[in-house]
Amino acid sequence: MRSRLHLAAACVLVALGGCSGPSNNTSAPPAGPVVEPPISGNVPSAKITRSSMLENFDAAGLLRATEPGWHAARNPTYPQWVQIEFDEPRMMHQVSLLPQDTYAVRGPKQVDVEGSEDGRTWKDVVSILDACAGGENTWRVFPASNPMMVRQLRLTIHSNCGDPDFLTLRGVKVE
Q: How many C-beta atoms surround the C-beta of residue 93 within 10 A?
């Protein structure tokens, strides 16, 4: 009886941990939130620059969706921007944005995406009026109005999804 009380007390302590008695399952839980769809293994090499940065939250990991991602300077003034210069030109049919895990309210809302083959002449690829719709840990996909070959890509962010203090972005995919 006493061991059942201990098991019951342990179950109460872990509440939603799924206490159904002893288990032989020794597999570890996933290392972080699951992102759907996952980042591809074919991440292009690129140099990434940004308009501002909070502490050490640089934009360098955006193509790999590295958590926690890029943070603009606190209390950002708009517009903010991120520019990606790929090592090799690539065809762009769509751009996908991934907000910071559990902080979608910090993500970009209104974004103009421009592409360039030479870094001097820029063409509109897509204007995103509201990138806020979508669940946590999900990519927001925006088809290009004008699919094109790009060597450089610039995202000009005019507003975020409501947080007055932070603008963050975890990932960018160019497909």
A: 11
174 phi, psi to nearest 5 deg: -120, 115
CA–CA gap between residue 108 and residue 51 (Å, rounded): 14
Domain 43-174: assigned CATH number: 2.60.120.260
Boundaries of every domain in the chain: 43-174
Picking from 60, 46, 36, the residue whose alpha carbon sits closest to that of residue 141 is 36
As separate numbers, helices (DSSP H) first and strands (DSSP E) second, the chain gives 1, 8
Q: How far are the Cα atoms of 32, 99, 102, 161 from residue 134, in angstroms, in the given order?
A: 19, 10, 12, 11
Q: 121-134, pLDDT tens digit by residue?
A: 999 999 999 999 88
Q: What angle do CA 107, 109, 110 make, to 5 degrees?
A: 140
Q: What is the pTM of this model?
A: 0.78
Query: What digits encode the pLDDT tens for the residues 23-54?
Result: 344 444 445 556 555 565 678 899 999 999 99
Closest CA to 157 of 134, 136, 130: 130
Torsion angle, alpha carbons of 31, 34, 40, 46, to 10: -70
